[in-house]
Structure formats: C-alpha cells, structure tokens
C-alpha cells in the first residue's frame, strides 16, 4: 500500500484489487500487463518476467516499432498473451501490474508522427492509469532521461529539474551551447571552465537613450559554460563600461582538432575583474593573472596577454590567416574600417583618411567609445604604438614589417540623409542604395529607428541562412531570470515582423537583420566591414540541412554577408552591402533562442505522463513507479532505428563509416538491456515510487563509442563526422545513488561486454558470419 514516499507526499490507500484475488481458490499467479512489450526493452522485460513461473504476462503492442519476432519464443505459451492494441484506446484486463513502456523511443520514430507520440504518452498513460485505478494494479512508467533536457547538472540526479524547453526539439541550442561543445574540447579539460567575455565592442552613438548594437556587450562577461557569476548574477546589465585594464586576451587558447579539418584557432576574451571576483572559477587562468598575465597558460594554449581596448584586433586569427597579411583588420566593430599603413607597430594614415579613427585616449560624449577625430590624426601614430600585440597573432608578423591596417573610421549618421528623426518609420522613398557608402552600420542604425512591426525583410540573397540577431539585453526567454526580457521565438522571413511586434519599440535596443551570402568568393575582400554578432542569432528559415556546426564554422569566421535588404510597409528600402559578421559572442546559457521544431513530443509527452502518474497517485491512491531510463542498448534494437549504438554496430558490420554526429564530444551513458530490465523489475516490486534513474553511469563521448565499436567489431571501418541536430544534449549521465541505495541495483554489464552481445544479434539478423571478436568475451 502506498502511504508516504520519498517526495513527502502522503497518498490515499490504493484501490483494492479484484475480489477474485482474495479467494482461496485463486491461482497465485501475478498477472502482468506490458505495454509496448513487443519492443526492444519490452520484449526483454517479458523474457525476464516469463522466467518466473508465477507470472502471467499480457503484452499489448501496436507493432509500430515492436515486432512479434521479439516474442516468438513465448507465443503460444499458456502464461503468455499477445494482443495487438494501441494504448491510445482503452484497454480492459484484470491485471496486478502494469509496465507501461509503450512509446516509440528512437527520434526517427517519435518524430514520425509527433501528435501520435504525444497521444501515446498522454492518452495512453491516462488509459493505463484508468485501468490501474479500476483493477487496483500497480503501474510503472518508463520515463526518460530526456526529461532533463540538455542537463546543466552532471551527473543528473532525480531532483534536478532539467534544462528544457517544451516547444522545441529537446530544447534549443544557442550558439553559446554549440560554442561550448565546439570549443571546450575534451582534449582541453582545463578549459572547460573558461569564461568568455564579449570583446569590448564599442558602441556607436545611442539614439533616444537606446544604445545601438554592441554597446552593451563589451563589458559583459558570461559564465562559460554555466550559469551566472557573482559579479554578474543574472544577466548583463544594460550598458556597463568595461575597464580596459580588466580585459585580457587569451590568445590561441583553444585549438580545434579535427582530423578531417584544418586546425583552427580561436581567441577568447576574458574579463580580469570577473576572474578576481571568482577565482575558483578560473583556476589556471587566475594564477596566471596574478603573475602579471604573461605566463603560459598552457604550452598548447597560448598566453594571457594584457590587452588595451585600443589594441583590440579581430579575435579570430583565421580571419587574419586567410587574409593577406598586409590586410589585417583593426576593427572596432561598430565603426567602419579604413585602410592605413602600419610600419613598425605604428599606424600611418593615408592622406584621404577622414572622419574618425580609433584612439585609446578619447571618448565620445555619449558613450565610452574610443574615437579620435580626424583632427588628431597627427597624434595617432604615437597612440597606436600599443599595437605591438598584433605580431603575436601570427608568427609571420613577429618581425614587424610594413603592413596595412584598416583603421576605424566613422560614416555620416544615416539619419541625416535618409531618415526622419521624428518618424519612427523609415522615410527612404527616394533612397537609392549607394553600394560604396552604405554599410552594415547603416542598416543596423536604421533598423534601430524602425518600430519592429514596421520591419519586413523582403529579400535575402540566401534566405536559408538569414539571421535575425537581437542583443541579449533586449529580451530573455526566461522571465523568471529577468522580467525585462521578452520571448522571441524563431522567426521565418514571413513571421519575422509578427514576432518582433510584441517587443515594445521603446524598450528594445535594436535589431539587426543579417543575411548571409552563399558566395564564398565574396569573403575576405579588403574593403569589407564587420558587423558584430553581439547578440543571439536566430535561424530565420529552416536550414537546408541542420548542420549547425558547419554553420557555426561559418559564423566564427568573419564572412561577407551579402546584400541585405529590409523594407518598411511603405516600400522603403534599407540596404547594406559587404557586411561581414564577426564571430558570435557567447551569451548566457539561459538565453536560448526558441526553435520551433517538432521533437519535444517525446520529452514533453513523458513529462506529462510523469505528471499524470503523480496526480493519479495523489488523487486516487494509485500505486505508481516511475523509472527514468537512460540510453539503453542490446539485442533486438531495430537495426536501422537511428540510435547511435544500433547505427554504429550496423555500420561496422556492413563495413560502412561510423557516423559520428558533430561535435562527437557529446556524451551518453549506455545501459545494457538486461541491467535495465533488472532495474525496472526491482523498482516495480520495491516500495519507492520514484522517479528513479535507471541507467549505466559509464559515460562516453560519441567519438569514444565509435572507437570502441571499431576496435571490437571492425577495425577496418572509418569514422565519419556528420551533421547533427541543433538540440542534441551535450552530456548525459545518470546519478544512480538512489537506485543503488533504494533498489540495491546497479548495472553489471560494461559497454565493452555488451557491444559484442549486441553484435551477435545484429549479425544474425543481417545474415552475416560469426564475429571474430566474440572469443574475447
Ligand atoms: O549515427 C549516429 C546516431 C546518433 N549519434 C549521436 O549519438 C547520441 C545519442 O543519440 P541517440 O539517438 O542514440 O539517443 P539520444 O540520447 O539522442 O536520445 C535517446 O535517449 C533517451 C531515450 O529515452 C530516447 O530513446 C532517445 O531519444 C547523440 O549525441 C547523437 O548525436 C551519432 O553520433 N551517430
């Protein structure tokens, strides 16, 4: 009888079972219903239950993913019954136990018909709870590790609420998350806690108190990878100023190592103030800073170099590498670049340089930008001597030689020529784009002045790679963190205006529409301009293929963004040409763009099922058990069900490349199916209602898994990196303390033991000869 449980909930007594049970003539057999019993885990569970002669087993299955084949040894057995039935329809049977497993579990199956997946979890679970209520049966739900989403707690305990979003795939990945997976390579564990601050982009003048793009990012550092810091407890503040002395450039701090790809390097900026506030967080780096920032961080990782704001160069050395060395970009993102000569670490401006140039010593009235008027050009040569940082970026620059730099200059504010200041709408009727003069700045500053609802994207050179970027400070997808932010779901080009319109024009900082060109030949031309991606980036249109990492590669290298056009309802056009996008800036993990894809049917379905279980338990006294099962593998998995272990084994046996989905460093914990079944039965027969994690805590990256499969099954196969979905959880590992202490359960079969067992099953089903490695086990 269920009374109190680990969750502190006192329950009603459960409904009593059938009077027949109490008859002295009643057979003592336990009648057990297994929904989804013809599936992979279900059929192994049936095997185990059937081994007990006191059990009668009834399987209901709609055979969507399950197969009679899995149960063939029991068909016809007097204690076994197989019924074709879909749990979304009511089912009546006199049973004592219900193992409710029915639900497609592989993404390709549960995405196939998301509504049906939800129905299976909601209506199916309701039906089974109704049955449990009527007959007084105890019911166990196999929930999933996916309820933890992309977990920020690792390993995951049952108390963890998860990092989830109900309207996305599993959740939605921001570029930060991808960045993290991408950069924080397991080869560099010391960097796993590196905090990356946004480069101190200088702002352009603010309008109506609304800072323009980039202005608020320079001073903001973010926990990287997780959560807020003491100095920045929640979100970046509106427009704090960065103390130049606090900026440190971590040079070459990460090398991406991909065998198939050229090695690339990245530079991250960190904020020294934050480091001292939170020394534990930084460890190595903090140490180095105390040593005047000049020690090696790690021979492989580069050095920490004190950096003055004025010496900021573009943070991506690839850009420099791919660019002729005499065309190094000294870039103040919000300002327009212009070329000048640098000789022996000094800049000399050419005679036609005009307007403004960057200087370390001056500020503009409206913000902390370091802008030097053209009249100060004479002094400029001296001031930029601090550019001695520059040679560090490339060995070829160690011996300074005359090189050309692009020095920041500023263009005429667009409103003077094209825009009515009184009118928030654009007034560009007579505007003829002048490709020589109109730049990203024009576009972004113009858009700042447009009521979001007035903005319509009308043309994209490459619509599939259009991005709407919105400064972090504009909104937040989690009101609980900051009520000042707004949720902005992913937009398509069609829905963009509608999605922007809920944001009050007055309290938003501005928007940039960036349209990426598909023309690689347009990259890296000398007269290019950089537009900051100092903001969240949203896919505006479905990508042609969801290769977000490839995409990230595009984004982390400045690329030319081709012609960008936006249009107001009045037909007025804004335009920009030769816009480059700088690498995206990490944003807090809780600032996730929403991405309305279709996969959350599974996770959310299981969450609702858990809720229903607990509600029936509390309201009706139903005896419930909830298992949160982690990745499980073993014989009888569908050969082509798309999950990683089955894929790798089938590929290895077929001699095909093992498809490691990028980044390959994502982890999973794989439980052999016999261990899983043992855990489920213990949970069902124990006293604790759960939820309890059932899974093997051995954690592997997908690369490690591929290598293991290769070693054990077919050393000849190659490993191929393939694209991944944007929402793939980066890590997953159960904390099984509860299972150990409450159920006395822990897995017995290691991955190296389990894989060959599964291999044998796959060989038979694929009609292949016996395994050569079998003898090892
Ligand atoms: O061929 C492949 C397939 C998958 N993968 C990767 O392997 C990892 C695991 O993917 P799987 O599809 O096997 O499983 P997932 O962990 O994503 O989801 C699963 O986990 C929890 C269960 O409840 C669900 O059954 C299922 O959704 C992912 O990171 C995926 O990107 C590959 O590297 N190559």
From TrEMBL:
Its main location: Golgi. It is found in: Golgi apparatus membrane; Golgi apparatus, Golgi stack membrane. It catalyses: UDP-alpha-D-glucuronate + H(+) = UDP-alpha-D-xylose + CO2. GO terms for molecular function: UDP-glucuronate decarboxylase activity. Its EC number is 4.1.1.35. Residues 1-10 have a biased composition (Polar residues). Residues 33-159, 600-756 form the NAD(P)-binding domain. It is a single-pass type II membrane protein. Residues 1-22 are annotated as: Disordered. Pfam families: GDP_Man_Dehyd. The keyword Membrane applies. InterPro entries: NAD(P)-bd_dom, NAD(P)-bd_dom_sf, UXS-like. SUPFAM superfamilies: NAD(P)-binding Rossmann-fold domains. GO terms for cellular component: Golgi cisterna membrane; Golgi membrane. Pathway: Nucleotide-sugar biosynthesis; UDP-alpha-D-xylose biosynthesis; UDP-alpha-D-xylose from UDP-alpha-D-glucuronate: step 1/1. The keyword Nucleotidyltransferase does not apply. Its cofactor is NAD(+). Keywords: Decarboxylase, Glycoprotein, Golgi apparatus, Lyase, Membrane, NAD, Signal-anchor, Transmembrane, Transmembrane helix. Transmembrane segments: none annotated. Belongs to the NAD(P)-dependent epimerase/dehydratase family. UDP-glucuronic acid decarboxylase subfamily. Catalyzes the NAD-dependent decarboxylation of UDP-glucuronic acid to UDP-xylose. Necessary for the biosynthesis of the core tetrasaccharide in glycosaminoglycan biosynthesis. This is UDP-glucuronic acid decarboxylase 1. It comes from Dendrobium thyrsiflorum (Pinecone-like raceme dendrobium).
């Amino acid at each position: 009888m269920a009374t109190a449980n680990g969750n502190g909930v006192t329950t009603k007594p459960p409904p009593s079972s059938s009077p027949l049970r109490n008859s002295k003539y009643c057979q003592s057999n336990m009648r057990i219903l297994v929904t989804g019993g013809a599936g992979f885990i279900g059929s192994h569970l049936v095997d185990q239950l059937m081994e007990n002669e006191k059990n009668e087993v009834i399987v209901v299955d709609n055979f969507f993913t399950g197969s009679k084949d899995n149960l063939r040894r029991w068909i016809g057995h007097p204690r076994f019954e197989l019924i074709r039935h879909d749990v979304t329809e009511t089912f009546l049977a006199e049973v004592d136990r219900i193992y409710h497993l029915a639900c497609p579990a592989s993404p390709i199956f549960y995405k196939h018909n998301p509504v049906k997946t939800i129905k299976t979890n909601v209506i199916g679970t309701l039906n089974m709870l109704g049955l449990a209520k009527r007959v007084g049966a105890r019911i166990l739900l196999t929930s999933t590790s996916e309820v933890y989403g992309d977990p920020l707690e690792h390993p995951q305990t049952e108390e963890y609420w998860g990092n989830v979003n109900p309207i996305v795939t599993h959740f939605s990945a921001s570029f930060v998350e991808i960045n993290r997976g991408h950069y924080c390579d397991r080869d560099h564990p010391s960097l796993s806690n590196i905090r990356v601050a946004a480069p101190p982009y200088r702002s352009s003048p603010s309008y109506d108190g609304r800072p323009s793009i980039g202005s608020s990012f320079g001073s903001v550092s973010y926990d990287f990878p997780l959560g807020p810091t003491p100095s920045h407890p929640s979100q970046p503040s509106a427009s704090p100023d960065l103390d130049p002395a606090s900026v440190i450039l971590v040079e070459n701090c990460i090398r991406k190592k991909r065998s198939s790809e050229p090695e690339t390097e990245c530079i991250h900026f960190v904020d020294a103030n934050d480091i001292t506030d939170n020394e534990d967080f930084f460890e190595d780096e903090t140490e180095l800073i105390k040593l005047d920032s000049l020690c090696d961080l790690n021979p492989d990782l580069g050095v920490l170099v004190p950096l003055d704001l004025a010496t900021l160069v573009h943070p991506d050395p690839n850009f420099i590498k791919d660019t002729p060395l005499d065309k190094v970009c000294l870039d103040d993102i919000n300002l327009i670049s212009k070329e000048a000569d640098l000789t022996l670490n000094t800049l000399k401006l050419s005679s036609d340089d005009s307007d403004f140039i960057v200087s370390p010593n001056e500020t503009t009235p409206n913000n902390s930008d370091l802008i030097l008027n053209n009249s100060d050009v004479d002094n400029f040569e001296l001031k930029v001597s601090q550019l001695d940082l520059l040679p560090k970026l490339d060995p070829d620059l160690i011996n300074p030689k005359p090189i050309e730099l692009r020095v920041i200059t500023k263009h005429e504010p667009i409103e003077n020529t094209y825009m009515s200041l009184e009118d928030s709408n654009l007034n560009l009727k007579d505007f003829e784009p002048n490709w020589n003069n109109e730049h990203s700045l024009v576009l972004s500053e113009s858009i700042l002045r447009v009521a979001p609802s007035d903005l319509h994207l009308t043309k994209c050179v490459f619509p599939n790679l259009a991005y709407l970027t919105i400064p972090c400070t504009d909104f937040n997808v989690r009101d609980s963190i900051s009520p000042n932010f707004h949720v902005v779901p992913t937009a398509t080009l069609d829905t963009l205006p509608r999605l922007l319109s809920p944001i009050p024009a007055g309290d938003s900082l501005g928007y940039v529409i960036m349209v990426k060109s598909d023309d690689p030949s347009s990259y890296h031309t000398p007269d290019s301009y950089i537009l900051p991606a100092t903001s969240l980036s949203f896919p505006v249109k479905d990508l042609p293929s969801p290769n977000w990492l490839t995409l990230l590669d595009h984004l982390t290298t400045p690329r030319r963004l081709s012609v960008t056009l936006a249009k107001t309802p009045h037909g007025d056009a804004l335009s920009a040409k030769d816009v480059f996008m700088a690498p995206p800036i990490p944003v807090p993990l809780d600032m996730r763009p929403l991405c309305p894809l279709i996969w959350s049917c599974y996770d959310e379905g299981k969450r609702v099922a858990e809720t229903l279980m607990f509600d029936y338990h509390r309201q009706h006294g139903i005896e419930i058990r909830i298992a949160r099962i982690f990745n499980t593998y073993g014989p009888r998995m569908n050969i082509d069900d798309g999950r990683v272990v089955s894929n790798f084994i089938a590929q290895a046996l077929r001699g095909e490349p093992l498809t490691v989905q990028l980044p390959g460093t994502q982890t999973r914990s794989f439980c052999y199916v016999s261990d899983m079944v043992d855990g489920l039965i213990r949970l069902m027969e124990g006293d604790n209602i759960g939820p309890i994690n059932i899974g093997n805590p051995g954690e592997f990256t997908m690369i490690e898994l591929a290598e293991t499969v290769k070693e054990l099954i077919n050393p000849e196969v190659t490993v191929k990196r393939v694209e991944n979905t944007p929402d793939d959880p980066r890590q997953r590992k159960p904390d099984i303390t509860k299972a150990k202490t409450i159920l006395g359960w822990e897995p017995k079969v290691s991955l190296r033991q389990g894989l060959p067992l599964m291999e044998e099953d796959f060989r038979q089903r694929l009609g292949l000869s016996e395994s050569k490695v079998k003898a090892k086990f």
